[in-house]
Amino acid sequence: MSKHVVLYKKLSPALMQRLQAHADVTLIEDVKSDEGMARLRDALPHADGLLGASLKLDAELLDRAVKLKAVSSVSVGVDNYDIDDLTRRGILLTNTPDVLTQTTADTGFALIMATARRVVELASMVRDGRWTQNIGPEHFGTDVHGKTLGIVGMGRIGEAVAQRGHFGFGMPVLYHSHSPKPDVEARFDAQYRSLEDLLHESDFVCLTVPLTAQTERLIGAEQLALMRPQAILINIARGKVVDEQALITALQNRQIRAAGLDVFDREPIQTDSPLLQLDNVVATPHMGSATDETREAMARCAVDNMISALSGDKPKDLVNPSAWHPH
Ligand code: 8YV
Known about the structure:
Elements: E1 3-7, H1 13-20, E2 23-27, H2 34-43, E3 49-52, H3 59-64, E4 70-73, H4 83-88, E5 92-94, H5 101-116, H6 119-127, E6 149-152, H7 156-169, E7 173-176, H8 182-188, E8 191-192, H9 195-201, E9 204-207, H10 221-226, E10 232-235, H11 244-252, E11 258-261, E12 281-283, H12 292-311
Parallel strand pairs: 1-2, 1-3, 3-4, 4-5, 6-7, 6-9, 7-8, 9-10, 10-11, 11-12
Helix pairs in contact: 5-7
The protein binds 2-keto-D-gluconic acid.
């Protein structure tokens, strides 16, 4: 009896072929549309496996997936899943760590550079024909090299950001994490700080923590008030790690210099969001891992995790090992 995988994120032809060699596959395109969601709901009762990303997999959907054995997420973040509920249901959850680490850290530095040197704002000035004379102080940015980089969250991506800051830009690196990381301190001459001290001492604050009950709204009005007026906030984690209204107020009042944001409370961000009206905000569309190479590598990991799970083998990137029971 062949297995049935429901796919809600398109795969390249090569990866689709790889998956179809092991299961029947139903592709649900545009799962966030009403029609797409209706098709997903109809397909779930027949699914042994579910593969995709950026969809909140809630209990109502899982209740429909009576045969489901594995969910393979094309993401490293797993905040879209109730891991305990999946485990209780005996459903394996896998993700795609590692393959996106460097690309996401590159995005972090793209935002650091773009925000500090006002690249988007000034490039728009050129494009719009408003570059009519040598730029003056009103258009100056701020240096990145040598400035203090504060990293909130020291996992794989945080380490890759620290590497870039230390070796690439000669930045003193501070970090806050749930526990000190002596190896990171040795490799990048990094220093552990409390969150409060990091916010007070850093010129750039880069958020790389996963979204959990402990990190939701980690950065609010109180935390933003600890940052320096010339400091810049970078968020490549999740939008909900920041109190977005408090950030808007801090940016409007120039309480901090600027923000580079790749993630938002709601995605896509509402077009009338005040964040999009501020010239000291660089906003990108959750593109952290969005390169040809990395997204294909992520999808390949997700396909291989799914194939392992459906074949009765332990998947490489298992998020909930307690749900695994060798046959
Ligand atoms: C996107 C991410 O979610 O991996 C994550 O957790 O935030 C991003 O990589 C992913 O690319 C969606 O497919």
